[in-house]
Write a structure and sequence with these properties.
The complex is a heterodimer of chains A (212) and B (316). Chain A has 212 residues and is α/β, with parallel strands linked by helices. In chain A, 41% of the residues lie in helices and 16% in strands. The longest helix of chain B has 29 residues, at 248-276. The chains are: A alpha/beta (212), B mainly alpha (316).
Chain lengths: 212, 316
């Protein structure tokens, strides 16, 4: 029953996402294949991973798990249902002080089980005017632990206008998700260099950086 | 549901015949000129023919569905067009409530008024009420940066995508003596003339086109294509007078008005695209642009056609 409810809810969420955003995936530097990947994306809204999920082909969608903050997704039974049962999210505790499990270990475990991941290396939703916040070090540690998994940048465009922070009615606007060429941690690459390189690769996919 | 009028069945059968012929020609051309899919013109032609099939099937179903079908179809077209239009505007966070009102209040109310055929209100609802109320909602948020530009953009989007487009289903509310039950054919007439004119302008332009008509706006449009297309589409319109309440001469005049409005509407929408730095309005079907790219000519001609028919032929 729970499984059927979850797939029905999943279908509804996909329909709603398409209705509001007519979202389209642009595979600019990589093709949608079965290869195991870590998609890393900009984070402006709680709907971000829904859009990535929507543009992934169905087969790949079900082996791709978003990584999300448990403080948000475990609050309330509806959110818990959507986060856990519909999206099968890897829920991590973002609070360093209180957490009992290591987020990197949780993500590694999911990778070792064969899943691909969607991560938001900014660590939190970007509500500033800047297009991208500085990456947290999580992506580096993840790349260090599983250096063979391809890191694919995914730029989500326009969703911040659909539903700005604090609003609850979405405005229908056309969104795109652009996937760039895969990256990997180079031998001996230092953390700041790696983070700068991945940030630049993601920003380069933004239509605004191509326009100017 | 009642049976579709025999004239509508005849029109739809005729269009299907033309499409089957077009698909056959497209198939033969592909076999001869582009067996490996390398001839861009042939591939583009076949893509267009496939898009035509989708449009004709949707349009045909809507027309057979009568008022419900047509109102729903164009209501959805308005929604998709508005979504594309607002995407390209400079609206800000402070416009959030005004935009929500545009999508979820103004649009459904306009189509509801069309549905209940309240001419006195649907013809002023957006030009008067939305025009005055939307800036009030935007002003309430207190953000004055580019205020005039922002409210003008939203009003323009509503006028084009919702108000003008809704005049297509509004054609069903006209009461024309001796033409009862056949109003969907007015919509068929409008859409066929607009689309035939697009195709004929393209064909004449390819055959004879030399002099560019608006090089800055639309480099592919030529004087020869425009004149040839407009005149031959007018002739087609006259030939379609049997499905309308018009004499052949009247049908020719109305077709010419539709063609001219459609042509200039296309130029206006191109100017906006150039201003915004995009090639297409949206990404409905890869390579085919968005809803507005398909709708722009119909949108500009619909209100004028509606009012000419209303003043000239309608008793209501």
């Amino acid at each position: 029953m729970r499984g059927a409810g979850a797939s029905l809810a999943g279908a509804l969420i996909l329909f709603f996402a398409r209705f509001i955003t007519a979202v389209r995936g642009r595979w600019a530097g990589v093709e949608p294949t079965d290869e195991q990947r870590i998609y890393f994306a900009n984070h402006a809204s709680h709907g971000d991973f829904v859009l990535i999920w929507t543009v992934l082909p169905r087969r790949i969608r079900f082996i791709t798990r978003p990584v999300a903050g448990s403080d948000y997704w475990l609050k309330g039974s509806l959110r818990r249902f959507i986060g856990r049962d519909v999206f099968n999210a890897v829920l991590i505790d973002r609070d360093r002080e209180s957490r009992t499990s290591d987020p990197i270990a949780q993500m590694t475990e999911a990778l070792d089980a064969g899943s691909s991941l969607i991560v938001f290396p900014e660590g939190t939703r970007n509500t500033t005017e800047a297009r991208l916040l500085p990456f947290k070090s999580g992506l580096f540690h993840l790349a260090q632990t599983r250096p063979n998994v391809a890191l694919v940048p995914a730029w989500i465009d326009n969703l911040n206008r659909v539903m700005p922070k604090g609003e609850f009615v979405p405005i229908p606007l056309i969104c795109t998700v652009t996937f760039g060429a895969p990256l990997r941690l180079a031998d001996g690459e230092a953390k700041p260099d790696f983070l700068a390189r991945t940030e630049a690769a993601l920003l380069a996919l933004s239509p605004k950086s191509n326009a100017s | 549901m009642t049976m579709p009028h025999p004239d509508l069945v005849a029109v739809l059968a005729g269009i299907l015949g033309v499409l089957v012929l077009a698909s056959t020609i497209g198939f033969v051309l592909q076999r001869k000129l582009s067996p490996d899919g390398s001839n861009a013109v042939v591939e583009n032609l076949n893509d267009r023919i496939r898009a035509w099939w989708v449009m004709v099937v949707l349009m045909g179903l809507a027309l057979i569905g009568g008022k419900t079908g047509v109102t729903l179809l164009f209501g959805f077209c308005s929604f998709a067009a508005l979504r594309e239009f607002i995407t390209l505007t400079d609206t800000r966070r402070a416009d959030h409530w005004a935009l929500a009102a545009a999508f979820f209040i103004v649009l459904p109310v306009q189509y509801y008024l069309i549905w209940i055929e309240w001419y006195g209100l649907y013809s002023i609802f957006i030009p008067v009420y939305a025009f005055l109320l939307m800036p009030i909602i935007a002003a309430a948020r207190g953000d004055t940066e580019h205020f005039l530009v922002r409210i003008a953009e939203v009003q323009w989007a509503l006028m084009i995508c919702v108000f003008a487009t809704s005049h297509v289903p509004a054609l069903l509310s006209l009461g024309i003596a001796g033409y009862e039950g056949r109003n969907v054919l007015l919509i068929a007439f409008l859409v066929i003339v607009v689309q035939i004119s697009d195709v004929l302008q393209y064909v004449w332009g390819k055959l004879l086109g030399r002099t560019k008509i608006a090089p800055k706006l639309s480099p592919s449009k030529t004087v020869e294509g425009f004149v040839g297309g407009a005149l031959s589409a007018t002739a087609v319109g006259a030939g379609l007078s049997w499905m309308t309440p018009f004499t052949p001469l009247q049908a020719a005049f109305l077709a010419l008005v539709i063609v001219l409005m459609g042509f200039f509407g296309g130029l206006v929408m191109s100017a906006i695209k150039r201003d915004r730095g995009v090639k297409d309005w949206g990404n409905l079907i890869a390579g085919h642009g968005g809803f507005i790219d398909r709708l722009d000519s119909v949108v500009f001609s619909a209100p004028i056609f509606f009012h000419l028919v209303r003043y000239g032929w309608s008793a209501v």
